[in-house]
Specification:
Length: 278
């Protein structure tokens, strides 16, 4: 919280005014961003500015920030991630096992930080990249997590009628391309769009020796490619952690033979500001 004093004001008076404002805002459940106290001669003016919810929302784009810079929505997502054992309960709804196994780090339902809209997120286990500053280092170990049948995942996607897409993250999704292709086909059949976060570059994926990698790639709508580079991490990057990573329109890129970047339907700069009525 920032406190600005304009003019000469007794410290005791300033402290009392600040304390009163804090108490008032605390009762209303609001957070104070700034208090400005101004000496107008015959009177003292105090202006208190509430912490803007718009600023907090913008911080969800800081996807892979350093640990002490994680934003609140990302931390909430990590706290809410479905425990692996819960999959066994949901798995009882599966009509049959597919025999295709997938090693999971966890699932998150109704995420707003892993692509546009409301999304279900599949976090896979195992990653060869191990980028310094990764937001999910517990997903690195290929022997960690929980091995489940793909059918156990399919019965939980989508988690609600409001879901518009599914995201594969990790871990490294393309290390389990064959199993995730089954999940991808399920998602696409239900009209959901698919985003995949990968530490591989687009060029590395096209040259990958595993044919399942290309099969999974062809099912994706957008791939966010490249390793996370901590020195290039900025909180205002939409849906990516560091500036080197690209949001790639898969269909257009495959059709043209060149990397075509994904663009939102309405560019952020064209979205009018939201008026907040207090």
């Amino acid at each position: 919280m920032q406190i600005i004093v304009n003019g000469v004001i007794e410290q005791e008076l300033a402290d009392r005014l600040v304390a009163e404002e804090k108490e008032t805002f605390a009762r209303q459940g609001k957070k104070i961003a700034k208090i400005v106290i101004t000496n107008l001669g015959d009177e003292v003016e105090i202006k208190t500015y509430e912490e803007s919810p718009i600023r907090r929302i913008r911080r969800i784009t800081g996807y892979l920030a350093e640990t002490d810079r994680w934003n609140a929505p990302k931390l909430a997502e990590l706290r809410d991630r479905v425990v692996h054992t819960n999959l066994a309960v949901r798995g009882r709804l599966a009509a049959r096992e597919t025999g295709v196994k997938l090693r999971l780090n966890g699932l998150t339902y109704e995420s707003v930080v892993d692509g546009p809209g409301l999304r279900d997120v599949v976090f896979v286990q195992g990653c060869p990249h191990r980028c310094p500053g990764c937001h999910n280092p517990d997903s690195w170990d290929f022997g960690g997590g929980t091995e489940v049948d793909v059918a156990d995942v399919l019965v939980s996607l989508p988690s609600s009628p409001l879901i518009t897409g599914v995201t594969f993250s990790g871990g490294e999704p393309f290390c389990q391309a064959a199993a995730l292709a089954e999940v991808a086909r399920h998602a696409k059949a239900r009209g959901l769009n698919l985003w995949i976060y990968t530490g591989y570059t687009w060029e590395e994926l096209l040259d990958h020796p595993d044919p399942a990698v290309l099969r999974l790639l062809a099912l994706a709508d957008v791939v966010v490619d490249g390793r996370f580079v901590q020195e290039e991490a900025y909180l205002d990057l939409p849906f990516r952690g560091s500036a080197n990573q690209r949001l790639i329109d898969v269909r257009e890129s495959l059709n043209t033979g060149n990397v075509v970047l994904w663009e939102p339907a309405v560019p952020a700069e064209n979205i009018p500001p939201v008026k907040i009525v207090r």
